[in-house]
From TrEMBL:
Family: Belongs to the 4-toluene sulfonate uptake permease (TSUP) (TC 2.A.102) family.
A GO term from the CC aspect: plasma membrane
Protein's UniProt name: Probable membrane transporter protein
Pfam families: TauE (PF01925)
Subcellular location, record wording: Cell membrane
Entry keyword GTP-binding: no
Main localization (coarse): membrane
Keywords: Cell membrane, Membrane, Transmembrane, Transmembrane helix, Transport
NAD as UniProt keyword: no
Membrane spanning residue stretches: 45-63, 75-97, 103-121, 142-166, 186-203, 210-228, 234-253
PANTHER family xrefs: MEMBRANE TRANSPORTER PROTEIN YFCA-RELATED, TRANSMEMBRANE PROTEIN YFCA
Record organism: Streptomyces qaidamensis
Length: 254
């Protein structure tokens, strides 16, 4: 990488760490930047997954106040994250690169739709709660299954997995969105860590990209956890959709 490319990857990692802590979808910032440096899509995804682990951890630590009283829930849903994250990482390593290159544009497009529709999803969640829809403290088998499948997606390609987590938990748990966001950060950290452990031994990755994203995401996770809630969700959403659209166009044309 050139010095300018390294600076861009570091900045992207910082932005992704902050966005992941607050909303999710930070991969839509780092992934196109890694592609622009010349990394193949699978190598970029693996390097990105490894690099975002520190950011996931710092974001989870930053939300520790909101995690109080949710230990049992985190442990239960963490099992779903481990199972799904492991399955997704295995799929990434076993499917041919050509399959990944065909699937990723679809996944990026899906992630962009989820980001763009996040206000509508949140509104539906609020209406469900206001109407007295059924909720359980642990969400029941439906939430466990849903989060397992979402974690399969997260282990394979992590863009917007946080939004999926929050929307699922918001529909099935009677909690504030801030406390759900705290659980989301823990689940993302679990998925990223499980996938990273597998990638370290069985995948090709770029150490320069990993180190730069790791440094940036660790800082970004702290920034996002401490100050991200003061930023306009509309601004973050616009940034994510804009960068993700560029990535989608790049993937389709190449």
């Amino acid at each position: 990488m050139t010095p300018w490319e390294m600076a861009a990857v570091l900045a992207a990692g910082t932005g992704a760490g902050a966005v992941n802590a607050v909303v999710g979808s930070g991969t839509l910032i780092t992934f196109p930047v890694l592609l622009a440096t010349g990394l193949p899509p699978v190598t970029a995804t693996v390097s990105n997954g490894l690099g975002l682990v520190p950011g996931s951890i710092t974001a989870a630590l930053g939300y520790r106040e909101e995690l109080r009283g949710q230990g049992r829930r985190v442990l239960l849903l963490g099992v779903a994250a481990v199972l799904g994250g492991l399955a997704g990482a295995v799929l990434l390593l076993t499917l041919p690169a050509s399959a990944f290159e065909r699937i990723v544009p679809v996944l990026v497009g899906l992630a962009l739709v989820l980001v763009a529709c996040q206000p509508w999803i949140a509104q539906r969640v609020r209406r469900r709660r206001a109407s007295g829809g059924p909720v359980r403290r642990d969400g029941g088998p439906l939430l466990f299954t849903g989060l397992t499948l979402a974690s399969v997606y997260g282990g394979y390609f992590s863009a917007a997995q946080g939004i999926i987590y929050v929307s699922l938990m918001g529909m099935l748990l009677d909690e504030t969105l801030q406390r759900l966001n705290a659980v989301k950060n823990v689940l993302a950290a679990v998925v990223n860590t499980v996938a990273a452990l597998l990638f370290l031994f069985f995948a090709d990755f770029d150490w320069t990209a990993v180190v730069l994203i790791a440094a940036g995401s660790a800082l970004g996770g702290l920034i996002g956890a401490r100050t991200g809630r003061r930023l306009s969700p509309a601004v973050l959403r616009t940034l994510i959709v804009s960068v993700g659209t560029v990535a989608l166009v790049h993937l389709v044309l190449h």
